Amino acid sequence: MIQPDVVTAFTAVRDINLDEPGTPQAETKAATFKSASSSIYDLAASMSAKGQLWNWGVHDSEFVAEIEARLPGFTEYGTDGFSEQLYYLALRDLPKGLESCDGRTVLEVGCGMGEGLNFLSRLVPTARMTGLDLAPKAIASATATLSRGDTLRFVQGDAEELPFEDSSVDVLVNIESSHTYPNLGRFLREAARALRRGGALSHIDVFTRQRLEAMRRITTEIPELKWVSDHDISDQVRAAVRRRMPPDSHLRSTLNKQRMNRLARTLALHSQITVFGGTFADYQPPASVKMLSRLGLVPPMDSLPMETYRHQIAVRV
Ligand SMILES: C[S@@+](CC[C@H](N)C(=O)[O-])C[C@H]1O[C@@H](n2cnc3c(N)ncnc32)[C@H](O)[C@@H]1O
């Protein structure tokens, strides 16, 4: 049976991303949604394998070569590396590249179980990094398995109400998280408040047409953030999502090692590909899954009409 929290969260994400004027959700609705969203990510934290990141990823052979030069063997860490490439991109394209973080304070808002930030802290070991997430179990898992004193720590909190002093952050990273915030403007204002002058916000997310229009309008209302780049990275994201589909993919070989029958494996693969950007990359479910869907035995996994996946950078002026 589908849990009520799942229904609440999916309905709210639809509202947030399809709302024409991009108006903030009413406070009571927003609070209900945040509570459902944090329950779902708590559940995901209790089911996720160690080392798992929660974004669609990107693939670009240049990124792989650049990461390999800094962290030899990074592709042998037990993941397919696509989600780590997305994290690398978040710092690579900052005005001063990865050096923007040397000896500096880095905050990730919406860090999930912290593996992406852990990866960044290996790329820039001199930085002081903090990860914040709404889901308490994700933060508990990150703290128990990854935290390392001032170098890497994790706190539970809300993107729309950051528990940090004014002007206390040099680089703020936000990856595939803001499309679920009921009030995007409040998050961007909080980011501007927490950043020091000259600091940077690296924002990566997937957008419906409506949400992109809303973001463009909201950004004109926050003069403290000067947007210096806005790149459409949809093709690189699709390249990563498509690399998870073939029989020899890392995702498939991981599932093949797990004890389950053939149908369960087919369904697990289908849900993983769908959740991690399948529709955006034109994924077609196999005939067996289509038939089970028609019979109502597989819940429909309607995806939102996502138009573009973007990386945007703003400097705090
Ligand atoms: C798709 S996951 C991405 C996680 C991570 N950035 C990654 O790329 O692997 C979205 C994350 O945003 C978090 N999130 C959602 N709403 C939030 C909010 N209002 N404040 C902080 N985190 C939030 C979720 O709990 C979840 O961990």
TrEMBL record:
Q: A Pfam family this protein belongs to?
A: Methyltransf_11
Q: Which SUPFAM superfamilies match?
A: S-adenosyl-L-methionine-dependent methyltransferases (SSF53335)
**InterPro entries found in the cross-reference section:** Erg6_SMT_methyltransf, Methyltransf_11, SAM-dependent_MTases_sf
The name of this protein is Methyltransferase
Q: Which organism is it from?
A: Streptomyces hygroscopicus
GO annotation, biological process: methylation; sterol biosynthetic process
Tell me yes or no: is Methyltransferase among this UniProt entry's keywords: yes
**GO MF entries:** sterol 24-C-methyltransferase activity
**PANTHER family, per this entry?**
HYPOTHETICAL LOC100005854 (PTHR44068:SF1), ZGC:194242 (PTHR44068)
Encoding gene per record = rapM
